[in-house]
Amino acid sequence: MFYGPSALAMDAKGRFAMPTRHRDALMQLCAGRLTLTKDRAGCLMLIPEPTWLAMRDALLKLPLEAASWRRFLLGSALDVELDGAGRLVIAPELRAYAGLQRDLMLMGVGKHFEIWDAATYALHEAATRASEMPDSVKSFVL
Question: Which of 70, 75, 81, 117 is most exposed by smallest CB count within 10 Å?
Answer without folding.
Answer: 75
